[in-house]
Design a protein that fits this description.
Elements (H helix, E strand, L loop, with lengths): L1 H57 L2 H11 L25 H8 L19
Length: 123
């Protein structure tokens, strides 16, 4: 009887030792993965900073101006192109055929009354 209890105790001791070693190696594996993930995060941050620096270099105003002059062939603004707000002609009332059609149907086309995609008022 005592031998059987000793064998059970030795088996439990070996089983618990295997379990502890298994937990130890899983912990080591997880800590290595955490370190790898930290290195990957730092590499990604470095890549982001490099891309920001590259964007800042490429979007310099002097570089954009040279490219615009070279590729867009734009001309300087002439003085006769500048007008006062009073000189801008008013919108032609005849051009709004949709608005006239809505008024003839008895619909009010103002945005305050639900036109232009506004949702109906809640009651």
């Amino acid at each position: 009887m005592w031998r059987l209890l000793h064998l059970i105790a030795i088996g439990a001791l070996i089983g618990s030792a295997v379990y502890v070693y298994n937990v130890k190696y899983e912990t080591i594996l997880e800590s290595e993965q955490i370190v790898k993930m930290g290195h990957q995060i730092n590499k990604t941050k470095d890549d982001i900073n490099m891309l920001r620096a590259e964007y800042a270099h490429l979007s310099r105003p002097d570089r954009i101006q040279v490219l615009a002059d070279k590729l867009l062939h734009m001309e300087p603004l002439a003085l006769n192109q500048i007008v006062r707000p009073q000189d801008i002609p008013m919108k032609n009332a005849e051009a709004d055929s949709i608005g006239r059609e809505m008024q003839s149907l008895g619909l009010n086309a103002s945005p305050a009354n639900g036109a232009a995609g506004a949702s109906p008022a809640m009651r």
